[in-house]
């Protein structure tokens, strides 16, 4: 069976392509390479022994999108990762974010409807919960007003999908990721942050690699044990595995509703200082960091109630924080080795 993976040369998409192939699926990747590189297809092939099919198209283009579906008429399901994802940039460029993330979503759903493909897995985010009233947060918690245009595109996309499945024969599963980190054990694929990273873990590894002078810890006056914010960090390989399970659930008609939502996290929260400690332990490197002011828009603490995913999907995150940080560090070292080879 062939699964279309949009954004499949990106961070989470590439790890999911690997997991799909491991489970015997054929994979067709589409990506416009606006935030990834084509050689990722070769790296996936190196890991699994089989290169996925690849079409370089922009999902904002409805004709190009439809053409892919006409050309590949044996697609059983779609996993939709393609989106712009930088929260700060979305505040600066809201129209680009709404245009990219929503047009892509709509063009994809139209092509699926027109070609009769009914199974969709969508990358949503814990950002839809904002600062939850109760922790751990479960899927029934109210979605809060989005903190950014990026966050709003996730909320609106969830609504577009739900409205669409209610009126067509389609089925969909929205997966709300908490904080994905780490990289594949082979260190052949991982996150490729362009420019200065916004996210904590690539900033930590780049600081340790000497690319950044120090990590700024954004605030230590939160209501948490050490004053720094708490997040639910999840290994990208655990996350990727959940997509295969979600797709199989629909292909085997095991879904309980046409539209389902699952939190994907470990269920454990760690503070920023705990993440730094874990990094220092696994790498043996003392990380240069300074406490600075809070970052506007940051929530104080959030971690997932994973009961629904555990019980319904039969999925549980397996990897702990140290393993996540070690794989992130190995990936950073592999990136630096590649750069040194080129220069
Ligand atoms: P990524 O940027 O590494 O991957 C996204 C891919 O989509 C990139 O390869 C990019 O080139 C491609 N793309 C973007 N717009 C496109 C378009 N119009 N047409 C074709 N391709 C396009 O990001 P990621 O971290 O792998 O995230 C994947 C998905 O998961 C995104 O939808 C993101 O919003 C969501 N998500 C990510 C996180 C996170 O922290 N990484 C957390 C929650 C949700
Ligand atoms: C984690 C913690 C920072 C960088 C973002 C998006 C969210 C989702 C995941 C897509 C926070 C602290 C960070 C730094 C720091 N993405 N930090 N110094 O903010 O939880 O979530 O990515 O859907 O929508 O908002 O992740 O990695 O940026 O931050 O102290 O240089 O690390 O304050 O507490 P965040 P993050």
């Amino acid at each position: 069976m062939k699964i279309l993976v949009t954004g499949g040369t990106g961070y989470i998409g590439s790890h999911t392509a690997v997991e799909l192939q491991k489970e015997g699926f054929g994979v067709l990747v589409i990506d416009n390479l606006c935030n990834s590189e084509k050689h990722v297809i070769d790296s996936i092939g190196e890991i699994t022994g089989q290169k996925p099919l690849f079409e370089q198209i922009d999902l904002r283009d409805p004709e190009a999108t439809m053409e892919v579906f006409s050309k590949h008429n044996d697609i059983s399901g779609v996993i939709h990762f393609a989106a712009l994802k930088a929260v700060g940039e979305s505040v600066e460029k809201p129209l680009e974010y709404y245009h990219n993330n929503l047009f892509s979503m709509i063009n994809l759903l139209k092509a699926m409807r027109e070609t009769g493909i009914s199974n969709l897995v969508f990358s949503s985010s814990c950002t839809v919960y904002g600062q939850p009233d109760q922790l751990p947060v479960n899927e029934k918690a109210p979605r809060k007003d989005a903190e950014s245009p990026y966050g709003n595109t996730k909320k609106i996309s969830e609504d577009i999908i739900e409205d669409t499945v209610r009126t067509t024969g389609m089925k969909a599963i929205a997966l709300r990721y908490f904080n994905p980190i780490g990289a594949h054990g082979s260190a052949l694929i991982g996150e490729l942050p362009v420019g200065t990273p916004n996210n904590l873990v690539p900033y930590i590894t780049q600081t340790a690699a000497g690319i950044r002078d120090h990590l700024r810890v954004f605030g230590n006056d939160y209501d948490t044990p050490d004053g720094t914010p708490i997040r639910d960090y999840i290994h990208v390989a655990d996350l990727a595995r959940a997509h295969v399970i979600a797709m199989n659930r629909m292909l085997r008609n095991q879904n309980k509703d046409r539209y389902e939502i699952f939190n994907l996290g470990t269920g454990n929260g760690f503070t920023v200082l705990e993440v730094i400690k874990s990094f220092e332990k696994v790498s043996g490197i003392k990380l240069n960091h300074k406490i600075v002011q809070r970052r506007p828009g940051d929530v104080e603490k959030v971690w997932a109630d994973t009961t629904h995913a555990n019980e319904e999907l039969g999925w549980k995150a397996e990897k702990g924080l140290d393993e996540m940080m070690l794989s992130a560090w190995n990936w950073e070292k592999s990136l630096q080795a590649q750069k040194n080879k080129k220069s």
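Residues 85, 87, 125, 127, 151, 179, 198-200, 203, 215-218, 229, 231, 272, 295, 298 surround WQD (ligand 2) (CB under 6 Å). The first strand starts at residue 2 and ends at 6.
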